[in-house]
Design a protein that fits this description.
Blueprint (H helix, E strand, L loop, with lengths): L10 E2 L6 E2 L1 H5 L7 H18 L12 H11 L5 E2 L21 E2 L2 H17 L12 H18 L10 H34 L3
Antiparallel strand pairs: 1-2, 3-4
Helix pairs in contact: 2-4, 4-5
Length: 200
């Protein structure tokens, strides 16, 4: 009786005529996470944007100016109401009625988009040093958008305060412990001297 150990059962794919392993034929492609799927869509959208330019641009020709133009282009498809300076609701977080101010891309959406494109650029062969999405001008642009939308919509972004007080308390505790240790040492030295002098 021959042993089948170490052998795999093979089958013929009728469509291509090639020999395949049944396990491979049944294997499903790995599903992407929500982040990876969104990153792939964003990357394809940006590459399509470059191809639609006149003349078309190659990825190697892309710089931060093209990224800024792309951000301004997709801004028209935003869903966030950003009040213009002359609007009566400018600077008010909860306007009581609708207005004719344009819809824009929210700052948080643009920031997340740049993060995904920055990662996708390097995953698709780009170098970290030449990454246009990591350029300082992009960060400046995003900061200006954030501040402008905050003023227009009456949103205050509170800066995270460092826990200096806790650090001071910790430092005060250390100094207090040092003082107590010094006092205890002096008390011990005084008592030792008194014992030697026969005062106790």
């Amino acid at each position: 009786m021959s042993s089948n150990k170490g052998k795999e059962l093979l089958a013929v794919d009728e469509s291509s005529g090639s020999v395949v392993v049944p396990d491979q034929r049944q294997q499903q492609p790995r599903s992407l996470s929500r982040y990876e799927s969104q990153k792939k869509r964003d990357w394809n959208t940006f590459c399509q944007y470059l191809r639609n330019q006149n003349p078309p641009l190659m990825l190697s020709q892309c710089n931060y100016n093209h990224v800024l133009e792309f951000l301004r282009y997709i801004d028209q498809f935003g869903k966030t109401k950003v009040h213009l300076y002359g609007c009566i609701y400018f600077g008010k977080p909860d306007p009581p009625a609708p207005c004719t101010c344009p819809m824009r891309q929210a700052w948080g959406s643009l920031d997340a988009l740049i993060g995904r494109l920055r990662a996708a650029y390097e995953e698709n062969g780009g170098s970290m040093e030449s990454n246009p999405f990591a350029n300082s001008n992009i960060r400046i642009f995003l900061r200006e958008v954030k501040e402008g939308q905050a003023r227009a919509r009456g949103i205050q972004y509170k800066k995270k305060k460092r826990k200096i007080r806790d650090g001071n308390k910790a430092g005060e505790g250390i100094r207090s412990n040092r003082k107590q240790s010094t006092c205890s040492f002096r008390y011990f030295q005084n008592n030792k001297t008194k014992l030697q002098e026969g005062l106790f």
